[in-house]
Amino acid sequence: MSYLLRGVAARGGIRVVAADTTKLVAEACARHQASLTAGAALGRTLTGALLLAQILLKNSRDRVTLRLRGDGPLGGVIADAGLDGAVRGYVVNAGLALAPRVDGKLAVGQAIGRRGDIEVIRSLAPYGEPYSSSTSLVSGEVAEDIAMFLAQSEQINSAVLLGVYFDGGMVRASGGLVLQALPGADDAALALLEANVRSFGQLTDHLLQASLSGVMQELCWGLDLQMLTDRALPLEFSCRCSDEKALDALAYFAPEERERMIAEDGGVEVVCHWCGERRWLSPEQIGGITGNEIRCPDCRTLWYRQGQTTMIRENEICACGRPVTLPS
Asked: How many domains, the chain?
């Protein structure tokens, strides 16, 4: 089981959030048929999103989306997580295969790229507008980029450790930790924490040999770690896709296009980009897409569909350049 633990050290001056995500990252990599490099980038981002959810969110219905977009060949990686421990995500180029670095580690930074940004979007329930903030990428290695984001955007100095280890093409260990200096933290305690992190080595090496709580204890050696988690929070790779949402997405296609799908293929296969789930929509399901709609007379882009949120507003400009006109 993948799970998350929380604690404090140095008399409440240091917050510790840790996750073992081995099982869920293995599932994500299998679902997306990810290469080792792409899988490592995806696993780090999924774990990072789960840790950020515990740090940044307040309401159980809130979500945090973590997106890294660089100039590397991976094309970007994104994950969406909540306080409930559910996470989903994908990489744009899941099949990307790069040679390992000279030190033998997977070339995640090269895959993501160093020029670009890391963006964190908080979707606040029930009616709050999504709040987005971003900073420039530091290395594309994910952990360093999250640490810089927290320092610049949240004004919190943090040590972030993330890792995914493959053996025989399979995920054998995956996890992450965030250690944060809280207001009033003792300078001597922070100096000891920094020394502990510096001498710690590779996170996945420790996860292969010890429990997650043992890893937390080692990183907080001499700092009197106190666990706050009575029960570990279960974590899972979980998507919110459904047949209904697939049909909603298919409604963007013009009626004549949907009819052609039925005539030529006898239906259509829809693949969820978040989780890789494949759904076959039958002619009956496709034919059941109803509701008055308004489309651009020139390019047929969907402007409005009855029963759905307005997709484009009056006086905006369509992608083809035509002014939008909607009924009152």
From this structure: 2
